[in-house]
Amino acid sequence: MLFNGTHFILTKNENNIAVLDFISPARLMSKAVITELHSLLDGLALEENIKGLVVTSSSDNFAYGADINEFTPLFKGGAGDHLAYTHAAYNKLEDLPFPTITIIKGHCYGGGAEFALSTDFRIGTPTLSVGFPEVKIGILPGMGGTTRMPRLVGLDTSLSWLTSGRNFKADKALKDGFVNGIVDTEHSMAAAIDMINECTDGKRDYQVVRAAKTGKLPLSAYELQMSIAIAKGMIGKAAGPNYPAPMTIVDIIEQSAKLTREDALKNEITGVVERLINTGHSAAMCHVYLADLGIKSKTKKLAGEKTTECAVIGAGIMGGGIAHTNATKGIRVPLKDINQAGLDLGLSTAVNLLEKPVKRGKLNFSKAATALNNIIPTLTNESLKNSDMVIEAVVEDPKVKSIVLKQCEDAAMDNAIIASNTSTISITQLAKSLTRPENFIGIHFFNPVNKMPLVEVIRGKQTSEETVKRAVAYVQQIGKTPIVINDCAGFFVNRILTPYMRAYSNLLAKGADFVFVEKTMKKYGMPMGPAELIDVVGLDTSAHVLELMSQNYSHMPLPENNIVQALVENSLLGQKNGEGFYTWSTDRRGRPVKTLNNKAMELIKPTGKLELTEEEIINALLLPMMFEAKRALNEGIIASEEDADLAMIYGTGFPPFRGGLVYEMNKKEPGQIEQEANDIATLLADEITYTVPEIRA
Predict the structure, then answer these.
(1) Which of 21, 269, 279, 662 has its CB surrounded by the most CB atoms within 10 Å?
(2) What is the pLDDT of residue 236?
(3) What integer pLDDT is reported at residue 362 of this predicted model?
(4) Is 444 a known active-site residue?
(5) CA-CA distance, 528 to 522, in Å (whole number)?
């Protein structure tokens, strides 16, 4: 044995071929792993009579990439030094005085894929899944990825792989040249040894491969510019200015095309540190990524039994969307309504949602037909007797819901979970009509159900932990992200959005420029301006939420000039009836098209003209949301700041590159929030909206 460490074991076989086994349980290219790699490679370079090196792993997966938990402190300083240290280790591997080959089983991502790139050749097994996900956390493949990939697989292929963050299976990895062959796991070591022997016998020239990976890109200036221009055009349209990592990858590859390895790697470090980490976006997106991992881990531990049949009561657009989501995951769905017209609407919603991906070639007809067959329309409660989950999705009226929920409980099996898709009504209040309140819970979907990843799981005062576990398991089963919320009016997302809508109504009433406000919030990173958001939600729904929240929270009184209600009273309901702040239509592809609605503009009737800067608009609209999120955290309505950030990102489209609402608030210096709130309160003569809660609690 040549080396026996915590993360690697290095041995030599009878034919003088060294075998490096990556045994690290975490499968991560952490600082400790890189340090150990340095040490063993220094020793290996001094060994005599070594014919070649095979890098492998006893595990079913090769490497998951860098340890993202180490990123946060590195973002605060030291990232450049760490990358240079990693480059030096990978260069030692690449420069060994004999041929090298990596056997890749299972997952091989990020820094692990860059580790494999440092050897001369790679053999994959059929289980291979490889990719460079760094762009998803706002950085680039900085452990040699932007340097070695273009020189190994070509410019266009590397741009596609590195800027997309996608994972690729064995056949694609072979076709694109990332691996030199695909071999069954049991034969992979023999195949690797054969390749080493081919090199030593002169049948395979590994030095040619090294020269290509360490030299300049073999492209003319014209070829380089053509590929780069096409990539920039596509990425500029897809990523936009708020996600600079993909474009930085293109720039770094372009700038390094005529450089040799050493200078190209320095360029890589510059791209990571100066162009990405120093903007703060990388740290923010890393925070979101870790928060998502935390939610997945927490809910995996919390999850209970899976659902086999889920009845949906109320076959409107929302009910049809819930039915569709269940059916596509193989869950049988009795879809019940009180009349045929309601059933027809729910079924047509589900059919339309299935037809679109079929027409686009993303879903085959057979799977769509199977999903549709999982939906069983009914006008009676008889079909509920076999459902282990019953979701009520009727009109947002507590009296109606209480009656329907009791009927569901009476018709369902004794241990069935009865859930309400209410968006605002207290689960504890609705439970009063039920005989078994311990089996009752809130499962709040967001519209459109098929696209929105968040589902709030609301625990009432009498909801049992077993019910919470089964609800969480169900939400995971249908491919959504569950966040458990303790009961309160509006739950979490709607409670946080209400101050946003109130503040917006007040801005318009005081004469803020409508178009400028919309543009400012989209420039900030919101998927749509506040007026468009209210239109999409529905002005009647928004007016109802404003009314309900004003009854439950003294610091959320109705706006003095309730513009949302004024529009509703004039039959402007938003996207649902084609008229709101905007007039809505569809283009030839069925996509929504909006134009400013003059009728709505006339109804606003501002008291004056309010000139605001972009910063003042952002503070006026976001500070009330931040304050309400902090109040909800202080009350224990939501478990953690990370949960709160994900809820706003997944439930409202809050920009991920900002890290989340609470993350954005926590970036502010002590005293800054109080000063900003005081300035806005004075400017708008509105102390209630900008009352600062206990921020540091």
Answers:
(1) 662
(2) 84
(3) 84
(4) yes
(5) 6
